[in-house]
């Protein structure tokens, strides 16, 4: 998937949804909260960019949006609760995040209790009840599963392997399995193990002699998985990959350019969209840069 790191356009969109309102009635300072983990640097950039962009639009009304960001240990529920409580003292008009599974339900519950809009962009594996105050902008897994299944059919893959990482990913495969029965596809599934090198499983994939591979792993692990796939000999001119991460275009795949492997992926970001091209026009973003820049090398990805 699809993995839960949101694209720039998603964050711009969810900020737009909550912030576009009757500007004549807005106060001078409008606080907007966000919860990030320490490694979500690009998400922080996108949030700052969106806030600054809309603050610029409000300049003539003598109003501006003020970002209130908390960097939290998302795996520690107590600290998440503590930081959210501190954030609530600033009376934000909405809270964004977290952009991963840890702490998301807890924040959703707190926002519902205080009737504060909660917006997120992550792949849902929990399907608990949601109120009108809680909005998830990430494409639903059933839609993505159908899209990838249709793409596999279009590519005419009659035999293929699925390599996945998280147990929750099984839910993504329901459409594949349904299509496999209906279309008489031959499908094999392998799970990467966290306590051993990826090569151990990739060797098993190689032994199947199947050259069509669906890769469903976390975005931050894709490059390492592909390096080890190259080491065992399943990243060659004969192999064809469908990578389900929507953020593949943010990775540097230069090391695999000369493998001549056909790599297919989807994305919901328009590379030439002004939101992506003009982010450096916003002074505070260009100046701070949060120690990290956008890296979109997509020329060699089909």
Automatic annotation (TrEMBL):
Keywords: Membrane, Receptor, Signal, Transmembrane, Transmembrane helix. It is found in: Membrane. Residues 1-25 form the signal peptide. Pfam families: ANF_receptor. Its main location: membrane. Residues 43-278 form the Receptor ligand binding region domain. GO terms for cellular component: membrane. This is Kainate-selective ionotropic glutamate receptor-like protein. It comes from Euroglyphus maynei. The lineage of its organism: Eukaryota, Metazoa, Ecdysozoa, Arthropoda, Chelicerata.
């Amino acid at each position: 998937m699809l993995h839960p790191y949101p694209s720039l356009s998603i964050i711009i969109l969810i900020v737009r949804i909550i912030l576009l309102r009757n500007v004549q009635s807005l106060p001078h300072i409008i606080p907007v909260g966000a919860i990030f983990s320490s490694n979500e640097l690009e998400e922080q950039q996108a949030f700052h960019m969106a806030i600054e962009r809309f603050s610029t639009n409000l300049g003539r009304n003598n109003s501006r949006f003020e970002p209130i960001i908390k960097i939290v240990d998302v795996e520690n529920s107590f600290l998440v609760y503590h930081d959210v409580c501190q954030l609530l003292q600033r009376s934000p008009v909405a809270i964004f995040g977290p952009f991963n599974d840890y702490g998301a339900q807890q924040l959703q519950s707190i926002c519902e209790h205080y009737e504060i809009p909660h917006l997120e962009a992550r792949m849902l594996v929990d399907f608990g009840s949601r109120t009108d105050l809680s909005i998830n902008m990430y494409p639903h897994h059933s839609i993505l599963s159908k899209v990838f299944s249709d793409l596999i059919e279009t590519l005419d893959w009659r035999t293929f392997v699925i390599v996945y990482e998280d147990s929750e990913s099984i839910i993504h495969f329901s459409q594949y399995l349904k299509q496999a029965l209906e279309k008489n596809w031959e499908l094999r599934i392998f799970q990467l193990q966290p306590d051993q090198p990826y090569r151990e499983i990739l060797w098993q994939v190689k032994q199947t002699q199947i050259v069509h591979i669906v890769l469903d792993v976390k975005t931050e692990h894709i490059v390492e998985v592909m390096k080890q796939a190259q080491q065992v000999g399943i990243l060659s001119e004969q192999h064809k990959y469908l990578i389900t991460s929507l953020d593949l275009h943010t990775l540097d795949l230069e090391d695999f350019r000369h493998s001549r492997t056909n790599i297919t992926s989807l994305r919901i970001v328009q590379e030439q969209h002004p939101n992506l091209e003009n982010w450096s026009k916003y002074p505070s973003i260009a100046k701070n840069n949060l120690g990290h820049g956008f890296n979109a090398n997509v020329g060699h990805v089909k």
